[in-house]
Every structure is written in structure tokens, then in C-alpha cells.
Amino acid sequence: MKMRLNLVRSNAVLPLVVTSLLGLSGASSGQDALSEPDLEWLGQQVFRNECRSRPACLTSWNAGEDFPSLGIGHFIWYRAGQQEIFEESFPHLLAFLKRRQVALPTWLQNSTDPDNPWLNRAAFNAAQQSEQMRELRAFLLTTAPLQAEFIVSRYNLTEDEIVSSFPPADRSKARQILQGLAAEHPPLGQYALIDYLHFKGSGLNPGERYHNMGWGLKQVVAEMLEAEVSLKQFVAAGTAVLDRRISNAPAERRESRWRAGWHNRLQSYLPPFN
Length: 274
Known about the structure:
Blueprint: E1 3-7, E2 19-24, H1 36-51, E3 59-60, E4 69-70, E5 75-76, H2 90-99, H3 121-126, H4 131-142, H5 144-164, H6 168-182, H7 188-200, H8 217-223, H9 231-248, H10 259-267
Antiparallel strand pairs: 1-2, 3-4, 4-5
């Protein structure tokens, strides 16, 4: 049976109320729902990890990258015709918000799949105080709870795909790993799964590879197939996967500059005194 991360709604923008883990699909879980403080903390972590909880960071274009990162989850947005190995997520967020009947800024309503209108980082940064950019930041701030819901919904949609991508002999263990982690030290286990999937992807896209080796949640689960199911092992496996990505990355990307930050993010999944 499958573990589901179920959403709790809130009208507050911050702190965000993101998820509660109510149990196994179609069955009683035998564990209590998460408390409201835990739920608030879980939402805050997503925003803190990507934006250090700063509204100004909702519209960012990181040095060394060829795309902006928007919203509480720093969703990637490409220009028209741009091809990259990383999954573009901002148009998917906009589609999700449309389905929830959220009114988008007028300049984003003209296309079912809008493209990033800024040609480069310099143009993007020069426009930070423009009316268009201020409108975008306000929109991203007021829709923060729905962005969090979108992040969680992506986990729910992806869990089965990750399990099914393993050879048949490993699928039961892969499911056991994901379910076991989700039940670890609430809300840390749920947060670890949600955040890592959002942070580094599912690992299912064959285009997201260096030397044919991925770095997503699937690859972390694969590292754990012979290990005990615990957050400590998840962090160790994630660290190994990300270090391998850095070693395999093209030299011009200089990904080693992100090693400390990535390691610190993984360490935030651990309970105190681990």
C-alpha cells in the first residue's frame, strides 16, 4: 500500500501550512496527524531553504545559471526555445494555479505555456524594480500556500513512478524505503522526501545526467537498497549522490561551490542530536 502526503489548507501566507501525513491509502495508519506547529515548520523550511524566507528572493537569477528561479521553491523558467538538462517547473506551477482558478498577472495570461521574457541575467536584474517584476513578486508571495501545495502534489504524483522505475526485484524495497522515511520523526521524514524531490528532482529524466548518472530521489533510494531505512542513511545516501554529481559535472559549471550548501540542506533533515 502507498503512503500519501495529504494537504492541510491555510489562508495565511507565512507561516505556510503544507502537509499532514495521515497514513496509508485506504487504511488507518495507526499514527497521529501532525500538529499545527509541525505543519507550519514544514512549510517554513521549504521557503527558508530556497529563499532564506526573504520576499526579495522570490525573483532570483543565480550567478552561473542561464535561467531565473522563481517563487518559494525557486521554480526554473526557460526562454523560448531554450534547452537545458534541468526540469523546467515554473510553467507547471502556473498551470497548477490556473486549475485552482487563481488569476495570473495579465502578462502571464496570454499563453498556455509562457516563456521567460528576460534574455539574460543582466536584463533580469536590471528589471528588479520594474512594475512587471514587482507584480510578479506580489503574486508569488500571495500564492505561497498554493506553491507549497504544488510541491507536495508533485511528490504524490511521482512516488509510484520512482518505485516502478526500479527492476521488479527491487520495487518492494524501494516502496519500503519511501514509506519508512515518510514515517520517520514527523515531520522530518515527510520534509526530507518533499524537499529532496523538489531540490534535486525525481532522477527519472534521462536528460538530467552527468556521465549517465543522475542525482534525484530515485538515485538516493537506490543508494539505500542495501541499507537500513533511516533519516541518517537517507542523508548519507543523498550526500554520496550529490558529491558524485559534483565530481561528474562539467568543469565550467564549478558545482563544487555549492557542496557546503547542499550538505547543510541535507543535514537539516536529521533530528536533533542524531
